[in-house]
From TrEMBL:
Transmembrane segments: none
Domain DNA helicase Pif1-like DEAD-box helicase: 7-149
Known cofactor(s): Mg(2+)
Single GO BP term: telomere maintenance
Name recorded for this polypeptide: ATP-dependent DNA helicase
Family: Belongs to the helicase family.
Catalytic activity field: ATP + H2O = ADP + phosphate + H(+)
Length: 149
């Protein structure tokens, strides 16, 4: 039942914002989850995030590229199944959007994601990122709760 509520709410927000002619980007960490979202893409393909991400990683999006222009114009980013990915993915997107939004009138350096509205969806009590041969503290350290965001 929770899955239906979550997808209904996300779809309702997407439809409402798109009905005004604005852009909503729906992403999920896996291809299967992204198929459940309207015009969904994987986070790795949409934000050019490496599958083997580290603390120092930055998204491979040039500020003047078509991908950057799409991110600049988007009114909302809905990131489904967010707890499944490493905090470094969010931090890389935060840095990327900060660079892209820097010249926008809505930019605020004190707000996460360059003041872009990002909704992180998923069950934060249930699913954690997968860390190969990781100990409990490694897994906890990689969650979004351990991030500066």
């Amino acid at each position: 039942m929770e899955v239906l509520k979550k997808h209904f709410s996300g779809n309702l927000m997407s439809v409402e914002i798109r009905s005004r002619g604005d852009i909503v980007l729906n992403v999920a960490p896996s291809g299967i989850a992204s198929l459940l979202l309207p015009n969904g893409r994987t986070t790795h393909s949409r934000f050019k995030i490496s599958l083997n991400i580290t603390e120092d990683f930055i998204c491979n999006i040039k500020p003047s590229s078509p991908q950057a222009m799409l991110l600049l114009k988007a009114k909302l980013i809905i990131w489904d199944e967010a707890p499944m990915v490493s905090r470094y993915c969010y931090e890389a997107l935060d840095k990327c959007l900060g660079d892209i939004m820097r010249f926008s009138p809505t930019y605020n350096k004190d707000l996460p994601f360059g003041a872009k509205v990002v909704i992180l969806g998923g069950d934060f009590r249930q699913v954690f990122p997968v860390i190969s041969r990781g100990l409990r503290q490694d897994i906890i350290h990689s969650t979004v709760n351990s991030s500066y965001l």
